[in-house]
């Protein structure tokens, strides 16, 4: 018997067909992205370079982790679940490109541990692109504040 509209499960994606195709192609899912985010931030939090930057700004980790799962669900699977604005949150951070490289090293390591090869490639490509644009935004903010940009 065909399902009626009322008995269908709630739509979890703004673009269900695309999301389905991406999940099949990459092996990524809510469960995998949750493991990726939790695994990644457990490394970040104890990292001597990045840990203190996060610890000074995030006291309650649960909402941050939930937000980051929504972010990765939006970025990797186009579900539209994340509605925030990352640029202003990074513009004032005391970071150079070296910090982003460290962030990316830990992200690549975790993605390769948790995802399929296709899934890891998919999320790493997106992380690299976003890291470059967040770095540029943080440099622009510094320049506007009258400081010399750091090339390190
Ligand atoms: C040097 C590297 C990075 C550092 C130190 C850093 C640090 C932070 C901190 C401290 C926050 C919390 C800000 C707040 O709530 O006030 C945050 C939020 C966030 N970060 Fe990063 N981050 C880095 C790189 C990245 C990269 C590469 C991405 C994406 C690929 C990313 C995505 C996000 C997102 C989506 C949020 C949530 C923004 C919101 O509140 O909606 N971050 N980050």
From TrEMBL:
SUPFAM superfamilies associated with the record: Globin-like
Residues annotated as binding heme: 64
Key word Signal present: no
Species in which this protein is naturally found: Roseivivax halotolerans
Any matching Pfam family: Bac_globin
Keywords from the named record: Heme, Iron, Metal-binding, Transport
Organism superkingdom: Bacteria
This protein's name: Hemoglobin
KW Transmembrane helix (keyword) present: no
């Amino acid at each position: 018997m065909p399902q009626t509209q009322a008995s269908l499960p709630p739509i979890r994606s703004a673009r269900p067909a695309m999301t389905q195709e991406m999940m099949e192609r990459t092996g990524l899912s809510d469960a995998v992205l949750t493991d990726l985010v939790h695994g990644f931030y457990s490394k970040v939090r104890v990292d001597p370079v990045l840990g203190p930057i996060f610890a000074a700004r995030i006291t309650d980790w649960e909402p941050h982790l939930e937000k980051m799962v929504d972010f990765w669900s939006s970025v990797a699977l186009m579900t539209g679940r994340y509605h925030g604005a990352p640029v202003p949150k990074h513009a004032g951070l005391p970071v150079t490109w070296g910090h982003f490289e460290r962030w990316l090293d830990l992200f690549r390591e975790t993605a390769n541990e948790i995802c399929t090869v296709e899934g890891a490639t998919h999320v790493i490509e997106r992380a690299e692109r976003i890291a470059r644009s967040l770095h540029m935004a943080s440099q622009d903010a510094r320049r506007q504040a009258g400081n010399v940009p750091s090339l390190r």
